[in-house]
Design a protein that fits this description.
The complex is a heterodimer of chains A (38) and B (561).
Chain A (H helix, E strand, L loop, with lengths): L12 H24 L2
Chain B lengths: L2 H19 L8 H6 L6 H12 L2 H13 L11 H10 L1 H8 L4 H8 L2 H34 L3 H48 L7 H9 L19 H18 L1 H8 L4 H35 L8 H8 L4 H31 L2 H33 L10 H9 L4 H37 L5 H25 L6 H25 L5 H21 L4 H25 L1
Helix pairs in contact in B: 1-9, 1-18, 3-9, 3-12, 3-13, 3-18, 4-13, 4-18, 5-11, 5-13, 7-8, 8-9, 8-18, 8-19, 8-20, 9-13, 9-18, 9-19, 10-13, 10-15, 11-12, 11-20, 11-22, 12-18, 14-16, 15-16, 18-19, 20-21, 20-22, 21-22
Classes of the chains: A mainly alpha (38), B mainly alpha (561).
């Protein structure tokens, strides 16, 4: 796919990993909130 | 609304129109008007991306849904972060380097002119209707809650937006979006503070959330794999991923946001902002609805929040039955309030047996209140002959206008206006871009001056503004608004995503495969929507998969021939 791993504009892999980590934390938080307040 | 509230709303409108019109000078060429000379910072583009998606429908409909069902609607956004990562790697650098004005322009280079024409036409059709809905929704609700004339309300939202978008172009859209985003977030934050302060002194926020949570309202994630449920973890993760890929990657109203960024990096960063912030923001909005529910456990709530329908039933032949129901509602409400207080007391005493007993009693009393409300709604449907009637969209505006302090009512009404206007402005600007770039300049007048195209672009923006306001005036009985808009979008979104997957994802796809694949995808979605009860988020998957499958099959036969 064009654009991926491009030398001029390398994809910010660290930021992508951060997004996934944040989403996992948010999902865990939502799950915990559902358990805590039910 | 009191004078101070009016003053706040008028001041907001004047400020936004002035701020938008200030950008007119910087929009003196077509590239400046449509793409801000590809020179905007990532944070402004990122806020504009979020403001465009967060419409008044999201604000009003999602808080209402939070009141009645809780946080489950958050699941719609679960696929968004992953979609943003995929788009950052694929379409952002792709479109940016192709130097296109519209996403559909690229399809002509990759396939042929008829694929571009069809996808751009579908965009014009779906976005103009959705733009009308986005104006109509808050228009209908505010006119009922505030007692304003419907046409006046629609014009009050639509006209200023058309004016600044028409003259200021995409720069006006983006910079007003930034300010509008702050108005929206500030308004919601103020409401949350008022809600927490409005709880009884002996009921803490944690206890209120426990009480609301005992009815399932705090359960945001539903892991059951049921294709018929609108919002589950799986429909959000899979169907939502396809929806977000299509909306942010193939819909001109969003693609145009990041085409205005200074560089590929800034375009990516603008999408990353949504990837980080969007889900937390979308939790706060239905959570506000849950807190409104908790607030109305202790404060008198109307049996129906839609006062116009309420008044209509009182004048009808079923008025006596309705009055009887209202009296039952008052006693059921008092019983529920007592049960909620007992539940809070048990929590404070930290007595597990009492918590269990009072929790069960509260749930029973809440079910009783809900049953009475359901019977009242059935009477409304019968009297008004409106089978789609629902009270969901009237909860939040009613709370705002009856329980917020003077001045803050104006701020929140301005926030609802801001949510609507930010989405409308981006859509009008993108509708004009597709009209001028994909049709007018390509098919009708390819060799004209910059000044000519700029004038036509402004006229096109004004034209779509008038069309959207016209659709809004005639749009009626919209039902639960957020679902209407998302369901309508899902009819096209998945199929258009399929075409872009064929275009960008493989070199083997041919133009014949893409064109007929697109038609097959939309037909498949129409059949699934009409003949099965499969929830709308899955329609995006059906559309995209059908387009790719049919498109690849036809492409292979082309290559074989």
């Amino acid at each position: 796919v064009s654009g991926a791993g491009d030398r001029d504009d390398p994809a910010p892999a660290g930021r992508f990993i951060a997004v996934i980590v944040v989403e996992i934390l948010v999902l865990f938080g939502l799950w915990l909130m559902g358990r805590q307040f039910s | 609304m009191r004078a101070l509230d009016w003053l706040v709303v008028v001041a907001y409108l004047v400020w936004i129109v002035y701020d938008g019109l200030k950008r007119t000078k910087a929009s003196d060429k077509v590239e400046g008007y449509f793409l801000a000379n590809r020179n905007l910072p990532w944070w402004a583009v990122g806020l504009s991306v979020m403001a465009t998606q967060l419409s008044a429908i999201t604000l009003i409909g999602t808080t209402g849904r939070g009141y009645f069902s809780g946080l489950d609607v958050v699941q719609l956004y679960l696929g968004l972060p992953l979609a943003m990562i995929i788009l950052s790697v694929t379409v952002v650098p792709f479109f940016y380097r192709a130097r296109v004005y519209t996403a559909y322009e690229y399809l002509e280079r990759r396939f042929d002119s008829k694929t571009r024409t069809l996808t751009s036409l579908l965009f014009l059709l779906s976005r103009s209707l959705s733009c009308g809905t986005i104006i109509a929704a808050p228009g209908v609700i505010l006119s009922i809650v505030l007692g304003w004339n419907l046409a006046f309300t629609i014009l009050l939202i639509g006209l200023p937006t058309v004016v600044y978008t028409m003259f200021g172009g995409v720069q006006a859209v983006t910079w007003t979006d930034v300010k509008q985003m702050f108005v929206i977030v500030g308004g919601v934050a103020a409401v949350l503070v008022i809600l927490v302060l409005g709880l009884p002194h002996d009921v803490s926020l944690g206890q209120a959330l426990h009480i609301a949570g005992s009815t399932g309202r705090m359960r945001a994630l539903d892991f059951t794999f049921d294709l018929h449920k609108p919002y589950t973890f799986w429909s959000g993760m899979i169907g939502g991923l396809f929806l977000m890929l299509s909306y942010f990657g193939c819909d001109q109203s969003q693609v145009q946001r990041y085409l205005t960024a200074k560089s590929v990096k800034e375009g990516r960063d603008s999408l990353m902002m949504s990837a980080f912030v969007k889900i937390p923001l979308q939790i706060v909005i239905p959570l506000t609805g849950v807190l409104v529910f908790a607030f109305y456990l202790f404060e008198p709530a109307p049996m129906l929040f839609n006062r116009v329908h309420d008044a209509e039933v009182r004048k009808s032949a079923r008025a006596a039955e309705y009055a009887g129901l209202e009296s039952s509602f008052a006693s059921a409400f008092d019983a529920r309030r007592a049960a909620a207080t007992a539940f809070a007391d048990a929590q404070r005493a930290n007595d597990p047996a009492a918590i269990e007993r009072t929790s069960t009693a509260f749930r029973e009393s809440d079910t009783h209140v809900s049953d009475i409300r359901a019977r009242a709604e059935a009477i409304v449907r019968d009297v008004t002959k409106d089978p789609t009637f629902g009270d969901v969209n009237y909860v939040f505006p009613t709370f705002v206008t009856t329980h917020l302090p003077v001045g803050l009512v104006g701020v929140m009404i301005a926030a609802i206006f801001a949510a609507a206007m930010s989405s409308i402005a981006a859509e009008l600007n993108s509708l004009a871009t597709a009209t001028v770039i994909d049709f007018y300049r390509r098919l009708y007048k390819p060799q004209a001056t910059e000044a000519h195209y700029l004038a036509v672009s402004k006229l096109a923006t004004g034209f779509w503004g008038v069309v959207a306001c016209g659709i809004a005036v005639y749009a009626a009985n919209l039902g639960p608004l957020i679902d209407v808009v998302n369901q309508f979008g899902s009819f096209f979104y998945g199929s258009i995503l399929g075409v872009f997957i064929l275009a960008i994802g493989t070199r083997r796809a041919t133009s014949r495969g893409a064109f007929w694949g697109l038609l097959a995808g939309m037909t498949a979605v129409a059949i699934v929507a009409r003949t099965t009860g499969i929830a709308f988020l899955w329609h995006n998957v059906v559309g995209a998969v059908t387009v790719v499958a049919v498109g690849m099959a036809l492409s292979m036969t082309d290559r074989g021939a």
